[in-house]
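User: quick one - fold this with 2-phosphoglycolic acid bound?
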Amino acid sequence: MDGKKIIIGNWKMNPATFLEARSLLNNLKTGFRKPENVDAVICPPAIWLKALVEIDKDKPGMFQFGAQNMSWQESGALTGEISAPMLKEAGAKYAIIGHSERRVWLGETDNMINGKIITAFKNNITPVLCVGEIEGEKKSATGGSASGGEGITKEAIGIQIGEALSGISRGQIEANRIIVAYEPIWAIGSGVTPTFDEVLSAALLIKKTLVNLYSRDTVEKIPILYGGSVNSGNAKDFVEKGGVDGLLIGGASIKASEFAGIIRAVSN
Ligand code: PGA
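Assistant: Sure. Structure tokens for the protein plus 2-phosphoglycolic acid:
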């Protein structure tokens, strides 16, 4: 790893119009100098990706761009999907894969996620694989701890990583770049966050699971991110105390001052 922190903004299905998306990007760039030690990535709705990449060219190097999703197929009959070569042509260098909103509400399976990672590698797109327990949600709903508990977290992460990387060799992992994001579903958009210690144990768990699949040397190069209700106030602590290499930001990434604040916070 080059030691740079990675901050990825997932705009999800926001903002409502292209004009607003363009001003969000312009607002982000106004008076803002991206710190050298941070890679900042924006994942806008795919329909605006190419135009935003073009707009960004007036200040090269400020942001990189990514997709929020990508098909496992490179072409063909797959209504509504967008292929890796199309995203690449539009300027995407990253693709979020297996976000829990897609797993839970759109029926995305581990098998599809596995295919998407293989296709991303083939097309030189860095997959940002999202994993995280969903069971904690139930616990918090029943008045228990908001956290999924170590057993549940361990099981969910182990299964999701194992399935997502099924059949992918150590050689393939070494020849490509992959990022893993720990995103406990109950923390996404809820304002409820795990403790820094819980993030630290989840990050270690992810590393351990990866080491079991590959080798320690290989895994050292894989950045681990945290995502779920991050804002400019807690960002630095998540990175420092949670022991992660960066953050995946939802809600706070569509507020220019918040996103810039997060980037600044982790750079110090
Ligand atoms: P949030 O979303 O920051 O709004 O909680 C995080 C995510 O979905 O990755």
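One thing worth noting: Confidence is low (pLDDT under 50) at residues 140-144.
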